[in-house]
Structures are given as structure tokens and as C-alpha cells.
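Trying the structure run again after the queue cleared.
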Amino acid sequence: MTARTLETHPNLYARLAGAIYLLVILFGGFSEGFVMSSLVVSGDPAATAHNILASPDLWTLSVAGNLIVPLIAVAQLWIEYLLLRPVSRNLALLFLLFNLVSLAVECVSKLFLLMVVPILRRADGAFDPGQIQALAGLALTAHDIAFHITLIFFGCACLVSGLLIFRSGYLPRLVGLLMQAAGASYLIAAFAQLFAPAFAAQITPAILLPALVGESSLCLWLLLKGVNLRAWTARLAQNA
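Done. C-alpha cells:
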């Protein structure tokens, strides 16, 4: 991708970013939202182990989807950075750094998911079934902790991207506000899960509704509308 191509055909890249964003939402929703919530029973490692071993293919597909998300998100992130850079190079770089840290931690979180089935299938006699189930539960707990740390950095990235979108002139201010609401939503949810689980149980999943609305609005706007070409050209001329 050359700077010249991006400047002259920004909507080509905006729609590509939107398409990748949609895949990220779909893969993440399937893996974290559907499979994890279906197979993992909170506070019951024995039931969780039974569910996973009864549906190993579904679990494997879920973990694969979880790994695909950060992989394709790198390309989405790069395009978003290039689209937001004309607003403020420094803020766009901050957005990039927050996202890179979130993706790095997210990749580490998937390591714990990859450990679950090998732990449950141990047959060396070193641990009894209850201990094996507890170890698998510990891996899932470690994944949850790492994933909520991921959301802290991603929430910060959403706050910065929302500010850039709001100030851009070539993307809707409303989408920028919705992305900032998404960032605040992720931060509240993640800190609550890590430090106030009783409070988190009261506000979840309602607290994540602004995140769903904000991310979906940006995804669909990029995919279906792209940027305002006149405002984009004016912003580039202002920075020239």
C-alpha cells in the first residue's frame, strides 16, 4: 500500500478495513460469545471438562477462530492507522501502540486455551481426574484474566480512535462518540472483572452494549460508506 494510492483511493482501503473488522467481530463473537459461553460452566470445572471433551471439534474450531482474530486484526489496524493519521500523526501512533499491546496480550491469552485439551487428555497417571479438571479450569481462568487485560488496552485504543474520528471531518462525529463510549464500556467491564467480580456480575452483559454498538457502527460505516472524499481531500491539503 503506497501513500499515494491511499490518498487517491481511500474508500478502497476503508472498505477493506470494514470487511476485515466484520470478520473480526464474527470470529470473536463465535469463539468467545457462542462456544465459550456454551461449553464453559463458571465455577464447575468438571462440567466444563465434560462439555469440552464431548465437543472437541467445536472447541478446536473456537480456538482456531480465536487465533485468527488477532492475525487479521493486524491488517485492519494498519489500515485504520493510515486512515486516521491525517488527523493527528501523534494520536494515530498512540492508537497504534495501544492496539499492538492489546493484540500481543490477546495472543498470549490464546496460549491458555490451547493448553486446555492437552491437559484434559493427560493419561500419564500423574494427576487424578479431579486435579486434571482443576488444572484445565486454571488455564481457562488465566485466559480470562489475560483477555480482560487485553480489553483494557483495546478500550484505550477505542477512546483514542473515537477522538480521531470525531475530529477527522471525513468520518461521522457520531461514530467517533460511539467508539469512545465503546472504549469506556470496555474499560469499566475489564476493571470490574479483574478487581470487583461481584460488581461485574451485576453489570454484565449490559455494560458491553455500548461496545457492540460502537464497534458495529464503525465497521459498517467503513464497509458501506467509507470516508467523505471532499473532507478527506481537504484534510490532506491542510496537512500538505
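The two ends are 20 Å apart (CA to CA). Worth checking whether this holds up in the mutant runs.
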